[in-house]
Amino acid sequence: MALLYFDESELRRGNFFEVPDVVHARGGASYELGSWIARGGNGAVYECRNRVTGTELAVKFLMHRGWAVARRFFRETELMDELTHAHVVALVGKGNVQANNARQRLPFIVMERADNNLANVIEARQAPVGPETYIGQFRGLVAGLAAMHKHAIHRDIKPENILVFGDRWSLADYGLCRFMDSRHQDISGDRFVMGPRYWLSPEAQNKRIGNDDDVVRASDVYQLAAVFWYVVTGRHPSGTLTRDDWRGPDWLFEPIFAALQHNIVKRPQDGSAFEAAIDQAVKQA
């Protein structure tokens, strides 16, 4: 048997689930569970291995109770099912498992296994990430955001939610996404603060203090541009920015600076527009 828990402190308190060492996904694939990787908002992530191919993957279990939490988890699963892009984390499988000490079965999703997240990579480096690395990754991430914006608004972009797979950076964690079509009602409520406060767009910050600003696709553009600024300069883009604050290639300053405008109408309005701006800057470099 394997023990599922949120983190070591919960395990010491006896808050865990007992499940079989092997879980079975829909479609017949089976996965052998490995070590705990991380705690998420809705559950925990573990290492796993496909018993036929030997591929090392990650599996995320939903362990929280409650209607809203479950809906977020299943929406994340649905969005991963719809998206196919190299810079968006892919869904490999899904299913549920019966725990010995729980009345309900625990849903899970199987994903690519990342080497790390961008926050940890940057914090661990002795020197800043160089343009020979980040330019290609920025282009991939804006293309991934453009693909996502055909279906949903992410609303939770931050360095921790950009996973690193070797030489590829990918958007991850879609639990706060809002779908663009009318099939899905937003379950978060009008006053729910979307995303990490340190990386929120101006309109999301205004919403938090009681204004009626809406969080839209251009809000995702701001959050992703804020991450880009942090990667290049090692600093958060707080306060009044000028070119003197920039530490990257001159030609890359303008598209990122435009995406960080406080006035939402002055930003690229979605991932596709941001992608076009970055690509145009690359061509003119």
TrEMBL record:
Protein name (database record): Protein kinase
Presence of keyword Chloroplast: no
Taxonomy of the source species: Bacteria, Pseudomonadati, Pseudomonadota, Alphaproteobacteria, Sphingomonadales
PROSITE patterns (UniProt xref): PROTEIN_KINASE_DOM (PS50011)
Keywords: Kinase, Transferase
Molecular-function GO term, any one: ATP binding
Keyword Transferase: yes
Superkingdom assignment: Bacteria
SUPFAM superfamilies referenced in this protein's UniProt entry, alphabetically: Protein kinase-like (PK-like) (SSF56112)
Record-linked InterPro entries: Kinase-like_dom_sf, Prot_kinase_dom
Alphabetical list of Gene3D superfamilies matching this protein: Transferase(Phosphotransferase) domain 1
Residue ranges constituting the Protein kinase domain according to the UniProt record: 31-285
Signal sequence extent: none
The species this protein was found in: Sphingomonas ginsenosidivorax
